[in-house]
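quick one before i forget lol
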Amino acid sequence: MLNIQALNAIGEVRPGDDLAALLAAALRAAGADLQAFDILVVTQKIVSKAEGRFVDLAGVAPGAEARRLAEVTRKDPRLVELVLAESSAVIRSVPHVLITRHRSGHVMANAGIDQSNIGSAGGDLALLLPVDADASARRLREALESLWPAGFGVLVSDSFGRPWRYGVTNVAIGASGFPALIDRRGTRDRDGRVLEVTQVALGDMAASAAGLVTGEGAEGVPAALIRGLSWDVTANPASALIRPVTEDLFR
């Protein structure tokens, strides 16, 4: 049976905080530990906060392209400047929408930059994604393994919109100790037919499941523990989920 447990005894995370220690304390407060095949899902927001990924917009000077896109999207040109700095390409820009390819490869709104639920640190702040979310997940897993060396996985989740569908859902942008993508090509279905294209985005599935308890607004639940899954394939990072630009059929 699959169980998803909210971990809410964490409080406001600030730059330089030992996030692994905070998560360990939250697990203990919830009467939980980390066992083999557990998945600890940690929202991007608290990872970015602990890593000090804040930028004060007061210190951002927008360039000509940022000002042009700000006119198109009706967004703060300082925020647009940050988006451009974090992106490798602009995919779409229309009023109130700026979709880019983040330098990590993820295609997302505003390069993942957020100004909601970032605490009262002062200033007109924006919060960037982790520099390398897979590395962030790995550091958390390695730190927690000193307490629970049980073969668990850690995911860093973020909320994405989806083409042709309303609403956001959580996806994995960082993963460690867990197969974010499982390739089923070459295996057979129940009728003996060889699967030709099936790849399972297990990381996104787990992140989305955790989103049922972490929420998207004022819930204040920044992490979740998933128990009841198992896997028999080699772990791979969340970057394995990113389709190469050469296979982008929608450009």
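fyi The mean pLDDT is 92.
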